[in-house]
Amino acid sequence: MAAEKTKAKAKTKAKSKVKKTLVIVESPAKAKTIEKYLGKKYMVRASMGHLRDLPKSQFGIDVENDFAPKYINIRGKGDLIKALKKDAKNADKVYLASDPDREGEAIAWHLSFILGLNPEEDCRIVFNEITKPAIQEAVKHPRGINIDQVDAQQARRMLDRIVGYKLSPLLWRKVRKGLSAGRVQSVTVKLICDREKEIQAFESVEYWTVGMKLRKDKSAMFDAELTHVDGEKLDLHDEKNTTALVEDFQKQQLIVDKVKKSERKRKPAAPFTTSSLQQDAARKLGFTSRKTMMLAQQLYEGIELGRHGATGLITYMRTDSTRLSDVALNDARAFIGEQFGEDYLPAKANVYVTGKKAQDAHEAIRPTDVNITPESVEKYLNKDQLKLYTLIWQRFTASQMVPAVYDTMSIQIKAGSRYQAKAAGSKLKFAGFTAVYAGAETTKKEKDVLLPDLAEGDELNIAKMLPQQHFTEPPPRYNDASLVKTLEEKEIGRPSTYAPIIETIQARGYVQRIDKHFQPTELGFVVVDMLKEYFKDIVDVKFTADLENELDEIAEGKVEKNHLLKEFYDPFAVTLEKADEAIGHVELPEEVSDVPCDICGRMMVVKQGRYGKFLACPGFPDCRNTKPLLVDTGVKCPKCGGSIVERKSHRGRKFYGCKNYPECDYTTWDQPLQEKCPTCGAFMLKHHYKNGRGLTYCSNEACETRIDHPINKELEKMRQRAEAKKAKEAEAAAQAEKESKTKKGKKK
Description:
By secondary structure, the protein is α+β, with helices and mostly antiparallel strands. It has 19 helices and 29 strands. The strands form nine sheets. The chain has a six-stranded antiparallel barrel with strand order 8-9-15-14-11-16. Helix 6 (about 145-175) packs parallel to helix 18 (about 560-580) and helix 7 (about 185-200) crosses helix 16 (about 520-535). The two termini are about 45 Å apart.
């Protein structure tokens, strides 16, 4: 009996000594999801991104010694590195499973150095989606670290360091402290500045169009437009000539000259790439690039789906490819056939051509499982996660459906011998992919435009003439969608870098976001003009794009890393030296406010800080007084009669409050308007939705116009959200206090 017990103990000891396989990923959320799929023989840990980097306090590149980088362990990650080393020592194997891109390859390379692994041995695993089959397949096929990809990442990092650490101090000396220049960010600011100059130089021209409402006998009215006069395109530039022409047109007999009926097909768009996802999320959901990428990361790494546990919902979100795997295509076709019927299924899978410059390393962004519909996970996702997942799911599903079919009708109309007009109509004949997704450029489904049944020779009657004055408009300022689209078209940077670039140029005060559009500041113009004069290449679009292509060639093993760095650095260093001698100190013009300093009485000036504009005393450093810059709305406070001013929350969100705060606590998220309510005379408020739509309503809650007004539901939602947030914060505070007491008790 004793012998049996001894054997049992020996078995237990042997079991406990069985070593596990260590898998290192980048984030804890991903680690949790993957651990569920791999089982007990594996332990999954997170590196929390990079563990080694160039030092912040020094240049960190030995230019004289073949651009040798000086890498150090990142401050604050010592305990994590110690824990990973311990786990690696106790593991049978170590797999490095950082993200499947160049940045991820570099993280794996740094990890191999820290943990003493041979980068050429099979220590690297990659997967495009966090699903059980993908993870298990990746573990079966480990490989060595791709040094060419690592070199491409190192070259990019060192180029950015050279520009940032050599050029930024020049800006500090010549303009002001705290500025920075970047290889890609400077070109982005230049694009925004160039567009602003176009707008400022634009001269508007008046022109007129002549629309009309027509009908045949007693048929329904339809719209038409005058297109030609005496065989020439309509060209009207003043009201006098337009009025004379309209009067003459009304005297003519209108006859249907030609009728053309046809069928038009509209094909579905390709599944999302990183760039097209950022554009569509900005256009349809009103998301910034940063928000889109943050939400996509959460969906990729895994969301808790009840009893199913943490589940990755989408494939890797940094990709420039529209390619789809055979498994994904087969699943999509099976789902479409079952849910929509065979009529919605093309004869063979739709394949989309990826651009010539695409690296095509990963699939397009798609759901990991098309059967996980947005409706089925709605209760597990927050509002924004659900919106983005719905967009990705719809775009992918629609990409494998048949085109939408429209019956179209266009008619040409003759009016006497001088005039030609046209009318066009269309009707949806078969929904096709639009049954799922409205389309890349549209936010809503197209409405039918119906024309009556017309034939050549039919006489038409004029119900109403609609001459309209217009003015040519300057090119629009960039918003998130159009800026991302331009950066991609001009091959500046990579889509995965667009979000941090846009954040950086705003944080530095070069650009400000006003009504979802980017406008350069005075500082932005000054810095760009200086760079254009002395560092043409840094802000040259073609040079930056060519450099990006050379980085791609390093990743493909066609170009040597140090060759590219030397080609860039040598002329750059010479230019830097000349510029330092030639450029004098640049004085930025100061905007003087009408607000006196409380301490010394000087009139305060407007300064641009990291979080926007503020007021500062010009007597600095003798007087260091600062104040928030309050923009007066011109509306009086309903509580105390003071001015309502524009303020910003600690998170940078705009709101409106009484200038007499804290004596008066009136605040509102909605924009006060100087317009008065026609019913009660109170000032109006404008509620701004995230998609850009605005809703105007009376600020007086007792006003009869507020009865059954759609704003009531919206305000109630906002109130409930605020209460839920407050309750959550209180719960978190209580939990933290409880944990603190428990810790104190344990110490005692």
